[in-house]
Amino acid sequence: MNRQPSIPTLEDVAQAAGVSTATVSRCLNEKEKVSKSTLSKVMEAVENLGYTPNFNARAMAARRSNTIGAIIPTMENAIFARGIQAFQVALHEKGYNLLVSSNVYRPELETELIKSLVSRGADGLLLIGHSRDSETYQYLERRGIPSVLAWSMQPGQTHTCVGFDNRASMHPLADKVIELGHRHIGVISGIVEGNDRAQSRLEAIKDSMTAHGLTVDPDMIIQTFYDLDNGSIAFEQLMQKVPTPTAVMCGNDVLAAGAIAKAREMGIKVPEDVSITGFDDIELAKHVYPALTTVHVPHREMGRRAADLLVDLIEDRGSASIIQLDTEVVMRDSLSPPKT
Amino acid sequence: MNRQPSIPTLEDVAQAAGVSTATVSRCLNEKEKVSKSTLSKVMEAVENLGYTPNFNARAMAARRSNTIGAIIPTMENAIFARGIQAFQVALHEKGYNLLVSSNVYRPELETELIKSLVSRGADGLLLIGHSRDSETYQYLERRGIPSVLAWSMQPGQTHTCVGFDNRASMHPLADKVIELGHRHIGVISGIVEGNDRAQSRLEAIKDSMTAHGLTVDPDMIIQTFYDLDNGSIAFEQLMQKVPTPTAVMCGNDVLAAGAIAKAREMGIKVPEDVSITGFDDIELAKHVYPALTTVHVPHREMGRRAADLLVDLIEDRGSASIIQLDTEVVMRDSLSPPKT
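Structure tokens for the assembled complex are given below, as produced in the milestone run.
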């Protein structure tokens, strides 16, 4: 009923310009990769035919739905917000819409949502992290649905992925904290079960402590859901331990912002009385007071490149590839040497 | 292929317990609304039959996709995060999955996304605000797709809606600012075009100023996209005006948090030198320093009740209804009388 056979397709443009559909697509999306003469030939055909790379036309051209699915652990807080927004903007430039679903940090729900998105006709999926059954990948492979993993990077993986090594990213920050002289370090970690990112970050802190000859006291590690209030509660608990921690390392910026707010409420000065660190460098990190020392993750770049990889796979231009992004420690004001 | 005819349906449970399917649903989702004897009868049938209110079983029972679509203006920042998360959790308890799409504050893209979600088989939609063509509603009506509007409330509307009156919500805060003695008031507003919420909040501030005999100076009103950095930039611009504002009212908490951070950077004390107010009462509001005086919006309740309304419409239990939620001014530390 919605079919409008007069709308020109990508194939029509390719035929008129005497080039492949991949070249047309490149002219529309990655002009810099195409020669000037090809570009002008293709753009002339685009104009003559009145081709618009919008949803309907492209779906008709490729028998695709031009819809991508993403499943993220949570929609609350801004942890995935910036990366997903960049992912969406990049997808839309390529003529794809994005549908996002959240599994509320419940691994078993992810499988259900994947099947739901595939049955709704998703052309490809963005998934967060690596903690899932191999059956899920087999399911996607049988149906020919490409997927890209983001937000983490496991050694030896083969699945298309754009991410960063959470362990290697947290390591230099933990080293920095210890090298400044901190010996009693509290940790507010995300729940590690089913969350490879949280687990890797926590392990990096433990590794670094052990490497520096410090004892890892399980009593000084609190696991909690990522949330400002939970960061506050965990911080208060840690500050009642004996000996009191002189530094509290948090699994992400949201927990750290909650810890900073609670410190102020308790009359504890940051960083004079206790240092607090984060992870992610979301926009909030530089706006809390004192500004947060944290690990910068290039969320926008991750979102953009995930879109590139996924669309290349869907449009048969790409093969499995693994992109590891660099992170860096951002020194702001919430970390200093301990009081002597 | 996936069909498993032995899975019991909601109807099976209703029949076994001798009640309506609506009653079974209530027993599963809103226990407090059901008598003890009905509850025990229904739960016995649930147990005997091995009924689980999950995706497959319910979809089979009702020939629905059990998928709801939501289109929100942005995924960045946490403006819609809490309400949408509550919406999703409530939907999932009722056996529905949620797909979220963002139109990046572009009204024309919303129409495209609505069509995409409907063609993907969405049983119903959550839409934000009232600024859209009547054609969109006609499109949904022709296809029999129920929709619920949230986050705003227009006088005289008839569409099913759970929201709050943005104008009436901002009004008492503006009155409060003026009654404290502020005469030079700067405003950092969201972009009002295509955003009825931003427009109503701005109008409330203007109304209140006019009602108190103050002149509204267009030069003291800056419209910008909701973003921490934009709040910072706009605040700096406002503080260069003559006369300098003694209070800056912001269209939401994200802009206000950006303004507070910039004030600190500029060595301007809040609220001693300038008062700053927000709107929304997202989690961030109480965690910035000084804690933000703002308007509390019951985001979680809005999300939950939107889920109730929408599922009732989909399952033919409800008729169009309009739920107006109350907001309240939350006095924290960022608002005080101006220096004399």
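Confidence is low (pLDDT under 50) at residues 1-6, 54-62 of chain B. The longest helix of chain B spans residues 196-211. Further analysis is deferred to the final report.
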